[in-house]
Amino acid sequence: MKHILALQTYLILAVAFMGEALPIAKSHSHTLPSYLRTPVGLVPHSAAHQVPVGATISHTQSAISLLAANGTALHTTPVVPGATNARPLNGNGNGNAKARREESGWVTFAAWLNTGESPIASFATSWTVPPAPAANDGQTVFIFNSIEPADFTSILQPVLQYGGSAAGGGNYWGIACWYVTPTGTYFTPLVQVQEGQTLTGYIQLQEQSANSTDFQYLCEWSNLGGYGLLVNSAELVWATETLEVYGIQSASDFPAGTTALSAINIATQETNAPNVTWSVAEDVADTVFTTVIVDGSVNALINITYPTV
Ligand SMILES: *[C@@H]1O[C@H](CO)[C@@H](O)[C@H](O)[C@H]1NC(C)=O
Ligand SMILES: *[C@@H]1O[C@H](CO)[C@@H](O)[C@H](O)[C@H]1NC(C)=O
Ligand SMILES: *[C@@H]1O[C@H](CO)[C@@H](O)[C@H](O)[C@H]1NC(C)=O
Ligand SMILES: *[C@@H]1O[C@H](CO)[C@@H](O)[C@H](O)[C@H]1NC(C)=O
């Protein structure tokens, strides 16, 4: 953990050029933060929407709408051509993106890009809720599997979080499903979970239109209450297993030990065992690691190791 402690000295400087760190720093001065933490960085309050039960998100080439169960548009935001998520990565967010250092953003992740003809039909990952971090410094820890379109303009993800986010939260673990775009952030209500509980986060292709341009996906947690998130969008092709954090001040702000992301199963419409190779992105200088222990699409196992205190 020496590395993080040494870096604390430089955090003030880092804030000057890491745009997304600024509003978090502001919150220490007891002003209402104008931005909220999400698993894709910071978003303005006005762009964050809780998804009611039965609602669907419709993401077309021109607009993103949150539709109530009866079809009424509850909220609509235009698609801004060329805009991608303000990704908390180094690089442009593609498969070659580099992970951030341990203080902020996507600090380590494994990813696979489906370049095949057959769309991903399901993507599941199971893990155990880790022990709560030993320290509470206003940090947020997000652990999730996620999937994005080829142009990286959105992300669908079942997210375990510790700390606060646009979905709420505090010094406890909670789960929600998220869909984040450059102009709108959508999440299901946060459901509190307990240390040691086993979680399974699913992303499932529900329907595909005859012309192959419209895909409907469901993000869901198994057996944990709450409800899923339905999204109509372009095909989602980039799968990740990610650890993301904000506001980390010491190693004690992470959980201790290792989180095993297990029973990672990816099926395409064509086969239950596509040729999947996970590539790891991490900052080799930091002390947070992702290790691919069992590669592939069937019961893959990827361990995230937190810094030692
Ligand atoms: C549709 O649902 C919305 C949200 O629940 C509600 O405000 C609206 O009145 C409903 N419209 C109709 C026509 O039922
Ligand atoms: C594809 O099909 C969907 C639903 O059937 C339709 O709404 C959409 O306009 C079609 N897109 C194109 C490019 O034809
Ligand atoms: C992966 O993490 C699990 C859970 O902490 C642990 O039991 C297992 O030994 C780890 N595997 C390796 C190869 O480190
Ligand atoms: C699987 O993918 C890897 C990496 O893309 C490639 O080297 C290998 O030849 C592929 N194997 C099969 C059986 O297609």
What's the CATH class label? Mainly Beta
Return the string of H and E elements: HHEEEEEEEEEEEEEEEEEEEEE
Give the termini separation: 6 Å
Looking at the structure, what is the overall shape?
globular
Low-confidence stretches: 1-32, 90-96
* Helical content (DSSP H or I, runs of 4+): under 10%
- Main-sheet strand order equals 6-5-4-16-15-14-8-18-21-20
Here the CATH topology equals Jelly Rolls
* Quaternary organisation: single chain
Q: Tell me, rounded to a whole number, the average pLDDT.
A: 84
**Beta-strand content estimate:** over 45%
Bound molecules: 2-acetamido-2-deoxy-beta-D-glucopyranose
**Class of secondary structure makeup:** mainly beta
Largest sheet: 10 strands, mixed
Total DSSP helices: 2
CATH architecture label name: Sandwich
Question: What would a concise description of this structure say?
Answer:
With 309 residues, the chain is mainly β. It has helices spanning 2-17, 21-27; strands spanning 35-38, 41-44, 48-50, 56-59, 63-67, 73-78, 105-113, 120-128, 140-149, 155-165, 168-180, 185-187, 191-193, 198-208, 215-221, 229-233, 236-246, 258-268, 279-282, 289-294, 300-305.
Q: How would you characterize the overall build of this protein?
A:
Keywords: Signal. Helix content is 7%, strand content 47%. The chain has one domain: Jelly Rolls (Sandwich), CATH 2.60.120. It has two helices and 21 strands. The structure holds 2-acetamido-2-deoxy-beta-D-glucopyranose (4 copies). One 2-acetamido-2-deoxy-beta-D-glucopyranose binds next to loops.
